[in-house]
């Protein structure tokens, strides 16, 4: 339903210097509390992805696409309860909200709706980050205003834009580094890199209809950031032969998400791929960079699949919010990603060994579905050998 509304076209903006640092190892201070992202002592780091909450005005906002007997008691508060249940069940190290956090058309006060939507994450004291979808700016705040409000909330590691970049399209392009286990040889290295990008809302080019896309200025920032992180990881101390794995989060799927059918993905595809009508080449940019192992989006609520293309897993989270179009009887859902480190010969923790994922359904038991390995270090090594002509 959300995508059937008449789009409000916002003009492109160019940005100046922003206040916040991107560097993980000098953590951002949020209301005096420093947050850092680091693998746990058990060698794991868990990310909860929440896509398309579509929050509006709370208990007065009705649900969409649920059974008639659910309607009288269903509201935005069901979305809030689902976030709380997921946090309690999974105890993630980090929470990512991948756009359409609020449904602007129905949100009376954008700031109030945003604060309410993120309240479960704020109350949990778990670090979290958010990016924008195509509906966040359709209330009382501009796209820039929404991102600035998010950055001002407690416990968030969200950034308006890169501090070192003077001109870049969109709002909410930034990266975060996940440090190795405290006291390990990787303590001062980022073992896992997270990239966040603003995939826009709607095209501002009259000749190109439909949704927005990731622009050249954003891709240039990504290329430079990825290159910098790869160099740091492959330098002494503990110089590595290849880059640390990277995960990328944005809202609107790439055209390449249409490359799959039921034979080569895990999950379901129940609607078309609502990407931009042009291909800006960002998938190729990620392949060339060589560090990206997974891309995670939202936007198409009835799709929740992961499929691998040229070594990169392209994954939907599936619709989360109750004031968002869905399908009665098809549970709202969330995606979890777990990165695990390898044990060293000395009994410590080294580089990332594997990245796994699963989804949880908002049913009585928070049922887990579609568990799969997205990437593993050993499997990647075998693939590289085959590509260079190994007889194996």
From TrEMBL:
<comment type="subunit">
    <text>Homodimer.</text>
</comment>
<keyword id="KW-0862">Zinc</keyword>
<keyword id="KW-0732">Signal</keyword>
<keyword id="KW-0408">Iron</keyword>
<dbReference type="GO" id="GO:0016787">
    <property type="term" value="F:hydrolase activity"/>
</dbReference>
<dbReference type="Pfam" id="PF00149">
    <property type="entry name" value="Metallophos"/>
</dbReference>
<keyword id="KW-0964">Secreted</keyword>
<keyword id="KW-0479">Metal-binding</keyword>
<feature type="domain" description="Calcineurin-like phosphoesterase">
    <location>
        <begin position="45"/>
        <end position="301"/>
    </location>
</feature>
<dbReference type="GO" id="GO:0046872">
    <property type="term" value="F:metal ion binding"/>
</dbReference>
<keyword id="KW-0325">Glycoprotein</keyword>
<dbReference type="InterPro" id="IPR004843">
    <property type="entry name" value="Calcineurin-like_PHP"/>
</dbReference>
<dbReference type="InterPro" id="IPR029052">
    <property type="entry name" value="Metallo-depent_PP-like"/>
</dbReference>
<comment type="similarity">
    <text>Belongs to the metallophosphoesterase superfamily. Purple acid phosphatase family.</text>
</comment>
<dbReference type="GO" id="GO:0005576">
    <property type="term" value="C:extracellular region"/>
</dbReference>
<protein>
    <recommendedName>
        <fullName>Calcineurin-like phosphoesterase domain-containing protein</fullName>
    </recommendedName>
</protein>
<dbReference type="InterPro" id="IPR011230">
    <property type="entry name" value="PAP14/16/28/29"/>
</dbReference>
């Amino acid at each position: 339903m959300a995508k059937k509304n008449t789009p409000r076209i916002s003009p492109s903006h160019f940005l100046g210097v922003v206040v916040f640092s991107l560097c993980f190892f000098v953590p951002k201070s949020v209301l005096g509390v420093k947050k850092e992202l680091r693998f746990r002592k058990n060698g794991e780091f868990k990310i909860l992805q929440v896509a398309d909450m579509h929050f509006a005005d709370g208990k007065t906002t009705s649900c969409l696409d649920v059974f008639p007997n659910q309607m009288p008691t269903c509201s935005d508060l069901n979305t809030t309860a689902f976030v709380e249940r997921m946090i309690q069940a999974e105890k993630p190290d980090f929470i990512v909200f991948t756009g359409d956090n609020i449904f602007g058309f129905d949100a009376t006060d954008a700031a109030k709706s945003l604060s309410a939507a993120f309240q479960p994450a704020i109350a949990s004291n778990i670090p979290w980050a958010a990016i924008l979808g195509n509906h966040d700016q359709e209330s009382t705040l501009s796209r820039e205003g929404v991102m600035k409000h998010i950055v001002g909330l407690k416990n968030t590691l969200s950034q308006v834009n890169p501090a070192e970049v003077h001109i870049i399209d969109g709002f909410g392009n930034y990266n975060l580094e996940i440090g190795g286990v405290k006291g390990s040889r990787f303590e001062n290295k980022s073992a896992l890199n997270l990239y966040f990008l603003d995939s826009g809302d709607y095209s501002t080019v009259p000749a190109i209809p439909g949704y927005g896309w990731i622009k050249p200025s954003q891709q240039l920032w990504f290329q430079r950031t990825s290159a910098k992180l790869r160099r740091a990881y492959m330098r002494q101390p503990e110089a590595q032969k290849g880059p640390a794995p990277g995960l990328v989060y944005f809202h609107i799927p790439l055209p390449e998400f249409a490359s799959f059918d039921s034979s080569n993905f895990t999950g379901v595809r129940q609607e078309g791929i609502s990407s931009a009508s042009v291909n800006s080449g960002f998938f190729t940019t990620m392949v060339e960079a060589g560090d990206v192992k997974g891309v995670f989006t939202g936007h198409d609520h009835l799709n929740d699949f992961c499929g691998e293309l040229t070594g990169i897993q392209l994954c939907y989270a599936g619709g989360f919010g109750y004031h968002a179009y869905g399908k009665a009887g098809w549970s709202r859902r969330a995606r979890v990603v777990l990165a695990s480190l390898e044990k060293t010969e000395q009994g410590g923790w080294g580089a990332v060994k594997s990245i796994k994922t699963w989804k949880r359904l908002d049913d009585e038991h928070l049922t887990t579905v579609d568990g799969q390995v997205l990437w593993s270090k050993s499997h990647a090594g075998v693939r590289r050998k085959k590509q260079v002509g190994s007889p194996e």
